[in-house]
Amino acid sequence: MGEYGLLMNNLRILRSRRAKLDSWVRRIFWMFSALPFLLVLTILTALWLKAQPLLLAHPLSKLLLGEAWRPQKGEFGFLPFISGTIWVTGVALFFAVPICILTAVYLSEYASGRVQRLVKPLLDLLAAIPSVVYGVWGVLTIVPWVEESVAPALGRWGDICPIFASANPTGYSVLAGGVVLAVMIAPFIVAIAYEVLQTVPAGLRQASLALGATRWQTVKYAVLPRASTGIFASVILGCSRALGETMAVLMVAGNVAQVPRSIFDAAYPLPALIANNYGEMMSIPLYDAALMTASLILFLIVLALNIFSILALRHVLRESE
Amino acid sequence: MAKWKWQNTEEKVMQVLMLLSFGLIVMSLLLILFTILSKGLPALSWEMISQTPKGGFYFGKEGGILNAIVGSLYLALGGTFIAFLFGFPLALLLNIYSSKTAWADLVRLSLDILWGVPSIVYGAFGFTVMIFLGWKASLLGGILTLALLELPIMTRAMDEVIRRVPPELPRAAYALGSTNSETAFFVITRQVLPGLATAVLLAFGRGIGDAASVLFTAGYTDRIPDSLFSPVASLPLAVFFQLGTPFPEVQQRAYAAALILTLTVLGISIFSRGISYFLGRHSIR
Fold first, then answer.
1. Is the pLDDT of residue A94 over 90?
2. Do A102 and B17 touch (CB under 8 A)?
3. Is A37 within 8 Å of B148 when comparing Cβ atoms?
4. Number of A:B CB contacts under 8 A?
5. Cα–Cα dist A176/B265, whole Å
6. How do the domains of chain B map onto residue ranges?
7. What Rg, from alpha-carbon coordinates, does chain A have?
8. Which residues pair with A254 in a beta bridge?
9. Which of B35, B97, B127 is closest, CB to CB, to A29?
10. Touching check for B27 and chain A: CB below 8 Å?
11. Which of A192, A228, A287, B162 fits a 20 to 30 Å CA distance from A24?
12. CB atoms within 10 A of CB A141
């Protein structure tokens, strides 16, 4: 065997070892890549199994529509918590959606490149602030504000408009939870809505402007209709974030197990229920199953919203590529 | 003529509304930072960050929150490490072996779903698994739960960066005879190093600030943990528990802990920009 043959032989050995290594890496990768999907299934199964004792003991309609929450007596009505979640999330969306869409439109259609570059880190930062810090901020500023200014001012209209009726002497309320949540979900909605607006082809805007439309008319008649699916998906994504948010809401929403009738009533959303009661659930029968049912309800709602918005966004963002 | 005027008024009104909304968002960020700084700075002292709680701490006696600072570091470092162990190969090989297949779509969809799962659900799930295994609230339980929370965040962030690698780069590596995995680990990794660092720091920041997932899984204690199986305190829970007490002296510590947490997140944000610039000197642009 000449020198050349030796070299080729060495190369072959090397090549086969490298090829073998590569095929091993490939196999390990297939195992790894199944992890996320399996994890979703595992969480779902685990929650389902732990929630089952309660789901078998009581009819579903009684659980979901029951107003009484007395674990000691075996009464588990989730309506106060479900409606608390809906109220707080609804208030958050009421504030966040118009402000976020206007901000995203401003950033995408009006702001200069410098402002756009400056805002990105700002939004990242706002999204990175831990939720307990939002909670502290809420307790220090929003709760007193609701208690001292908003509730007395709007409470006078309570007779005409029952959602403003203020029977709660503290500021720990649906409104405080909603405002804090609105600030928390704003960076998500703005960032995604901005990205969606960026995918609208420039030609569309140019055509509209060339026809003599003002910039706002261009936005209203050309840009927004085109981006509506994506913007809707960004709002849904923000909504699912708000639904699952725990600590900040827990700290400012008041946590009274009642169905809220006004924005000044205390609310007790599902995540707060889980977080507040986990330590003491062991002594009462079915209590842990009830908390797992709460987790399961939360998980299923968030899952449905997320799958919808992810698929919609994927469609929108991919179409533009 | 009248119609023309109306359009301009509408334009002006909408511009003002947009600027107001934008200003409101910027203002709320500044307001949060201002509130935390103004409450936290007076409460912050050397004693606060260098001592663990002493007897009577929760009635306003001596001590600091070192237990929570160290605990949070342990939890977030451990969680980030484990998430990296799984997330990094996953993101890398997802792009090398099956970038545009249906399987990759499913993996990405699952990761996106996991990203959206509320942290309280991770906490409840982690706690359930720990009961099933007979574990008590411990550092290890907290680390594993945080790893679950951080995995999708880190992996998707890395995935987005790796996807942007120009296809010529792996093609050049293949042409020189390197295998798929060699291309992934030696060529692409080098190129996306800044993005990887940003992804790791993003996940670390999320992990260190999350309270709901460690609430049941890591517990809370006044001591610095000496093993993986002892319970551990964390900064977010220190904020939460101490703000809930009626004593102003104890609430001070909540403000101090909130300030440390905020500064950490701010620091990570600035650091990640700096480091991505520093690591980016090997990237082809």
1. yes
2. yes
3. no
4. 246
5. 24
6. 2-43, 50-282
7. 26
8. A267
9. B97
10. no
11. B162
12. 18
Alpha-carbon distance of B108 to B114, in angstroms, equals 10
Sorting pLDDT into bands at 50, 70 and 90, what band is B60?
Answer: low
pLDDT band of residue A298 (cuts 50, 70, 90) is: very high
Longest Cα–Cα distance of chain B, Å, equals 80
* pLDDT at residue B3 in the model: 56
Domain covering B50-282: architecture: Orthogonal Bundle (1.10)
Of A50, A100, A130, the CB nearest to B236: A130
Of B107, B205, B208, the CB nearest to A33: B107
CA gap B285, B270 in Å, rounded: 23
- The HSE-up count of residue B165 (CA atoms within 13 Å, CB side) is 30
> What is the CA A321 to chain-centroid distance, rounded?
26
Closest CB to B14: pick one of A134, A136, A216.
Answer: A216
User: Token pair for residue A160?
Assistant: 């005409």
Alpha-carbon gap: B233 to the closest alpha carbon of chain A (Å): 15
CA distances from B29 to A236, B24, B65 (A): 23, 9, 26
CB A184 within 8 A of CB A125: no
Contact residues for B155 (Cβ-Cβ < 8 A; gap 6+):
A36, B83, B86, B87, B90, B91, B111
* B249 CB burial (10 A radius; 0-12, 13-18, 19+): middle
> Residue B56 pLDDT more than 70?
no
What's the sign of the alpha-carbon dihedral B182, B188, B191, B195?
Answer: negative
Contact present, A167 and A265 (Cβ < 8 Å): yes
The residue written with tokens 């901005």 in the block is: A194
**Helix, strand, or coil here: A254?**
strand
pLDDT for A38: 93
**Of A85-99, A113-127, B57-71, where does mean pLDDT reach its minimum?**
B57-71
B32 in contact with chain A, both atoms CB, cutoff 8 A: yes
Q: SS3 sequence, B105-137?
A: HHHHHHHHHHHHCCHHHHHHHHHHHHHHHCCCC
Separation of alpha carbons B272 and B285, rounded Å: 19
8 Å CB contact of A307 and B14: no
ipTM, 2 dp: 0.89
Q: Which residue has the tokens 């500023």?
A: A141
- Band of pLDDT at residue A90, cut at 50, 70 and 90: very high
